[in-house]
Each structure stands twice: as structure tokens, then as C-alpha cells.
Amino acid sequence: MGTVDIGIGATATLSNFTNDFALFDLPYLFTSKEQARQVLHSDWAKQKLSELESLDMVGLTFWEAGMFDIIQSKRPVKEISDFSGLTIRVMENDIFMATMTALGINPVPMAWSEVFTSIQNGTVDGTSNPPVTIYTASIHTIAKNFTIANMIYSPIPVIMSKSTYDTLPEDYQKLMYEAAEAASSVEYELIDQMEAESLDAFKAEGTEVIYFTDEQIAECQKIMKEQVWPAFVGGKVARADIDAINDVISNL
Question: Is residue 117 in a domain?
Fold first, then answer.
């Protein structure tokens, strides 16, 4: 609409406007943040961002929020089977909901503003979010079990209003891309630092941080690719995008 010049937000939200970005919501699309960062600054990613122009948006680059995992107040989750029966808040996104369901979790779509109170009063057991989001919202003060399984990597597209962008001289338009890209490396350093500080604070303030083993993560990945991916790849998520990402990864 042009009322905001530049905005940042999760691809899960952007997916409500276009299916072109729904693939980023797939669990275990990337094996690490480092791999994701390389893919999201490739020529393929630039082409992906350019597709936003059809929505009157200009995709400048990607930043990140981190990896979505699960914090909850019910019990320590040390095995995949321990997830079963938990009630966990998720964003209003069908891939996120399917991911929770595949683990035996009851997913509850809910606005972020309601999460803290809903965990307090027992409406939900916890939420799925990256560590920094959890820490800055003080969720760890009321939910003391955080399990890290690196489930869903959350990129943050930096998006500019096309109507604003079109008013800029060509050299300024080029500078917008360059500045957003330069800022991404700063944002990555900052999010890494904040994530480390958040995890330290969790432990210091009595939240148990449980890291799944490589074997457990591989088992989670297998569950997702067998139960979640088939419901979306080839439909909401283009198979060609998955193949393109795999091509980029194979050349890293």
C-alpha cells in the first residue's frame, strides 16, 4: 500500500500473501544456520526475492530470526516421544501446525501478544520460537523446559514498498540493495551474540536446555520428510524450489 517504506517479518507471515515463500517454513529445509545463510545470499535467492514485485514489494535481502524450537512448562523433552501430548502455540501457518502434529503435539494457532498469558494460565504448555524471541519475551521465566532440535530455520526478508522504491533515482535504488546486504552480516553477528546470551540466561535462570543428539535430529528430519513434506511439496511448495536449493547446497 505504500504506507510503510520498509518492513521485516517472518516468511511464515509472508506466505499468507504468496505461496512462493512457503518453502522456507518446511522443517529441516536447512541443516544449519550457516548453510541457510549461504543459500539465502545466492543468485537463486535474489531471483526468489524479485518475485515479490508482483505484490508491489521489493525484496532487498534476507536477515534471520534463528531456529524455531520448543519451550514449554510441562516436562523435560529428552526423547522425541516426550513431545506427544503437549499443547504448543504456533503461528497461524499450516506447515508449522503440521510440523507439531507430526511430533504428536497439539498445535494451537495464537497471536504472539497472547502467548505469555496463555502459558501462565495453562491454555497452552508452551510455544515454538527461536531462542532470542523467547528470551526477549521472558517466556523462559514461566516455561522451564527448552529442547533444541533445530526444527525450522526462520529467515527474515527485508522488504521495501515498490511504490517508495520507484520514486528513488536509479543509483539510490542500487544503494538500497547494497545497504540491506551489508546490514545482513551485522544482523547475523548480532543474532548469534544474542542467541548465545539468551541460552546462557536460560541456564542461569533455571530453564533446562536440552540439546537433541545428531541421531535424534536425523530421526526428527526423517519424520518431517515422511509426514510433513509430502503434504506440501508439489502443491503449496514448488518441487523446483527444493531442487534449486539442493543444487545451491551441492555447490557450496
Answer: yes
